[in-house]
Design goal:
This protein is mainly alpha-helical. It has one domain (2-137): dinb family like domain (Four Helix Bundle (Hemerythrin (Met), subunit A)). Helix content is 57%, strand content 4%. It has five helices and two strands, in the order H-H-H-H-E-E-H. The protein has a two-stranded antiparallel ribbon. Strand 1 (101-103) and strand 2 form a beta hairpin. Helix 3 runs parallel beside helix 4. The N and C termini lie close together (9 Å).
Length: 157
């Protein structure tokens, strides 16, 4: 599963590089679906990953919002600032019982550690699909989403 987090981070970085050619207005434009904008989608992805993984330790995480991270450079800095902590957290959590029930502060029900970890993975992939739709709507080829060819599964994690 760790390779899927690495995949998400690699694809996220490629999308953030892809965004460098877009005017800021395009990044902030309200769109149909998802969280309604390109930049807002990245902030949402990072926020969800960070907050769910923090909840595995029983701690709350401050919410990241597009109001605070309202430029491409700020979003790039945010993802870089949390990536190592998230990577260490993922590694630690994957070594624990994936069937253990976890209570998160924002929900009444409990979830297994494995559900939370898998949710973090699939959540980002879902939103990358939305970014691909928006890319095609503005006439620019999206980032290649293939896992194959990235050699991530071969890396020790």
């Amino acid at each position: 599963m760790h390779s899927l987090f690495q995949y998400n981070w690699q694809v996220r970085d490629e999308w953030l590089t892809w965004c460098e050619d877009l005017p800021e207005a395009e990044l902030l434009l309200e769109r149909t679906g998802g969280v309604k904008g390109i930049l807002a989608t990245f902030v949402h992805i990072i926020d969800v990953e960070y907050s769910w993984l923090a909840a595995l330790s029983g701690r709350n995480a401050d919410e990241f919002t597009v109001f605070e991270y309202n430029s491409l450079n700020k979003v790039k800095a945010l993802t870089e600032s949390v990536k190592q902590e998230v990577d260490e957290k993922v590694t630690a959590e994957l070594a624990k019982d994936l069937h253990e029930k976890i209570k998160v502060p924002w929900a009444e029900e409990t979830f297994t550690r494995g559900e939370i970890i898998n949710h973090c993975i699939t959540h980002e992939i879902h939103h990358i699909g939305q970014l691909s739709v928006w890319a095609r709507e503005i006439g620019i080829a999206p980032v290649n989403p293939n896992f194959i060819g990235r050699e991530l599964f071969l890396k020790k994690s």
